[in-house]
Amino acid sequence: MSPYVLLFNFFFILSLLGAGHALLTRKQPNSALVWVTLCLSLPVVGVLAYVVFGVNRVRRSATRLREEFEQQNITGYLKPPDHRAHTCLLKELPEELIMMEKIGRAVTGTFPLKGNNIEPLYNGQQAYPAMLDAIKNANESVYLSTFLLDKDPVGRRFINSLVAAHKRGVHVAVLIDGFGLLLSWRSVIRILKKHGVPATVFLPLSLVPPQIRLNLRNHRKLLAVDGKVGFTGGMNIGGTRNSKGNRRLTDMHYRLTGPIVSQLQQIFMEDWAYAKGAAHQPLPAPMDHTGDILARVIKDGPDNPNNPLHTSIIATISAAKHSVRIITPYFLPSAELISVISVAALRGIAVTIILPVKSNWPFVHWASRNYFKDLLEAGVRIFYQPQPFCHTKLFVVDDCYVQFGSANMDPRSLRLNFELNVEVLDMGLAQQLITHVDEIVLRSEEVTHREIVLRPLPVRIRDAFFWLFSPYL
Q1: pLDDT in tens, 421-471
Q2: Backbone dihedral angles phi then psi of residue 353, each to the nearest 5 degrees
Q3: CA-to-CA distance for 219 and 216, rounded, in angstroms?
Q4: pTM (2 d.p.)
Q5: 308-472: same fold as 59-93+113-293?
């Protein structure tokens, strides 16, 4: 048999294997069709692209580690100590909150924790000093997980604070995403390790088989200190100002106290164990009640086949009775999300979506505009928030439900990234954030149906072209 025939047979088998794997493992038919077509039409390039971008290698390892955690009873923080107490708690909830709580419990399999206090922090001016103060006053533990820890003045203040905490005997651990680490040229990890601070990379980028990792990211942002105070939201550390000192973006973070901090600490430990390859028993987290807010953490990632964030957003919008408010920097909704938002508007729910007027990723901005026509025709109101770029992720339903965290409303956040949101069932916080959202609306420019319909043909073609790649942006 000639070498050409052998080579042809090899490529043919390779393409069949790639196409077969995509056919059996991809959840969405359009995604499966793309990968099957690519593997069969371009046996080498297509299969290589599928191996690098399409194969989820995280789920198996994460499942193994989850079993280790269960065997060591480390996941106890995520479960209620008493089902009877939870039943009594539900009886105390207003009627409009009961349905929201049931949705969250069904989606996540976890129970909300009562007795928390949650404080919104606007931009780095409020968030960074509060976080640094917590690290400065830490007595036992500091656990920090972030997508980006920059080396600008803000980032260096955090590095110095972490080093100082470590030197005075506090148990410090720092976890940084592999992709985000590229933005600091990997030296942040070296600086921390040089001073003895335990630091590691979550999913380091790799093109070497079998550990090919390029398309998966830990986008979670959390800081847990002494198990008593926590911070989470959409804010990275640093990178908020340009070289001239002007603000590059606005964002929101949140200071949390109460039992919810134990969930943040637990999730950090799970991520740390995954990055290090072994489970580690966390320091005990106090369960002190510091307020009256009912909240729970929703974690999501490619290791979770149920897509809890995507499902919870869809189910909660379906249960809305009056209003839905969404702030997100990137809006590339799934077909299911488009449908539920449109149906909500058609049944009289006041749906408001706020996006940045200028995105830091122009092609995402262009692609999102291709969704607007149908939404506007259904009665959804869309606003462009003026500069600087708004990185906030906020979801408020009616006057009682809030969800905030690291997840954007795009396929990367809701399918590929490891994300962390906090679900809050509290009228007081909801009203506070509704006021914030409504103030933004007053200074924003509303997108009209006429504006979208009358876009010049080249602009419509450009928007539609990038819309084709929405699942992969």
Answers
A1: 999 999 999 999 999 999 999 999 999 999 999 999 999 999 999 998 887
A2: -120, 125
A3: 9
A4: 0.86
A5: yes
The pair of three-digit structure tokens given for residue 249, joined into one six-digit string: 């973006």
Q: Could you please report the per-residue DSSP string of 137-150?
A: T-SSEEEEEES-B-
Place of tokens 């637990």: 266
Other CB atoms closer than 10 Å to residue 93's CB: what's the count?
17
CATH code given to domain 308-472 = 3.30.870.10
CB atoms within 10 A of CB 224: 30
Q: Which CATH class is domain 59-93+113-293?
A: alpha beta
Tens of pLDDT along 259-308?
999 999 989 998 998 887 665 555 556 667 888 999 999 999 887 778 89
One-character DSSP codes across 288-315:
---SSEEEEEEEE-TT-TT-HHHHHHHH
β 222-225/229-233 pair status: antiparallel
- 337, 310 in Cβ contact below 8 A? yes
50 phi and psi angles, rounded to 5 deg: -65, -40
Residues near 209 by Cβ (< 8 Å), separated by ≥ 6?
51
C-alpha 236/C-alpha 248 separation (Å) is 13
Lookup: tokens for 179? 């992709």
> How many angstroms separate the Cα of 405 from the Cα of each of 161, 235, 359, 412?
24, 9, 19, 15
Backbone angles phi, psi at 234, to 5 degrees: -105, 5
Unique residue bearing structure tokens 């040229």: 185
DSSP state of 317: H
Residue ranges per domain, the chain?
3-54, 59-93+113-293, 308-472
